[in-house]
Design brief:
By secondary structure, the protein is of the alpha/beta class.
Length: 257
């Protein structure tokens, strides 16, 4: 069946969330360190005692890593940044009463702000979306994320991508995570597509490619130094196509149109 639509991952596929200077494989942790440093400063300015910077970073990333691990192993969890930071700040020693007085919402904003400052598009991202849109393809997005989706919509709009996306779903908002088939089905239904009429493109073999193929879609892997082939959860995952750069996507899709 001819291809009628493409659904995109976000981080590592349309937008870079990792600092430019991060070493391959360290981008995610460096991103979380950026947020942890900002949260620590915010709490210090509010008069709370906080751990030393290195300890604060270590405790923060341990919480983030545990939530992603549990989700990836199939536990029925829905990682959201607010509850995760509640756990972080408890580990940092903040008194329980402090966490019940509206602090969490401000903590989320403080954590996200410096990360948004480093977010940038992959080369040719908006142009690629424009070309596919002009080709008549229906375009959508489903992203695994702990952030409230409103922040991601700001980033996508800032870099000129929202005019081309007919739908944008974020796991923390909808309570479904890739690789669950329901995540892909949600975007397919919004675009009025059957699985065999759509391709999904992402940078993670397990969450993106395995998930899309299990849902009956074609899976296109945007090769990533951050999530290399070893991140396959013991599975043999063979993408329907592999890209070295996003700008090559329109040419790859031509054979399926």
């Amino acid at each position: 069946m001819p291809l009628r639509g493409v659904i995109f991952d976000m981080g590592g596929t349309l937008l870079h969330f990792h600092p430019r200077e991060a070493e391959p494989g360290q981008g995610w942790q460096e991103m979380e360190n950026t947020g942890a440093d900002a949260l620590r400063l915010f709490l210090h300015e509010q008069g709370y005692a906080v751990p030393p910077a290195d300890e604060a970073r270590r405790l923060n990333f341990a919480v983030m890593l545990d939530h992603w691990r549990r989700m990836g192993e199939g536990e029925p969890v829905n990682p959201q940044l607010g509850p995760m930071l509640h756990q972080v700040m408890s580990a940092w020693g903040l008194p329980p009463a402090a966490l019940e007085n509206g602090l969490i919402e401000d903590a989320v904003a403080a954590y996200i702000a410096p990360v948004q400052a480093i977010i940038r598009p992959l080369e040719g991202a908006a142009e690629t979306l424009r070309r596919l849109h002009e080709r008549g393809l229906r375009l959508g997005l489903f992203s695994n994320t702990a952030w409230p989706g409103v922040y991601h919509l700001q980033d996508l709009a800032r870099w000129g991508m929202m005019p081309y996306l007919e739908c944008a779903f974020f796991s923390a908002d909808v309570g479904i995570w890739k690789p669950r088939a329901a995540a892909f089905q949600m975007a397919l239904e919004a675009l009025d597509l059957q699985p065999e009429e759509a391709a999904y493109i992402g940078d993670h073999l397990y969450f993106d490619i395995y998930g899309a193929q299990q849902a009956g879609m074609r899976g296109i892997w945007l090769s990533s130094a951050e999530w290399p082939a070893s991140h396959q959860r013991g599975l043999t995952i063979t993408p329907d196509a592999t890209l070295e750069k996003l700008a090559d996507l329109p040419a790859v899709l031509e054979k399926w149109l």
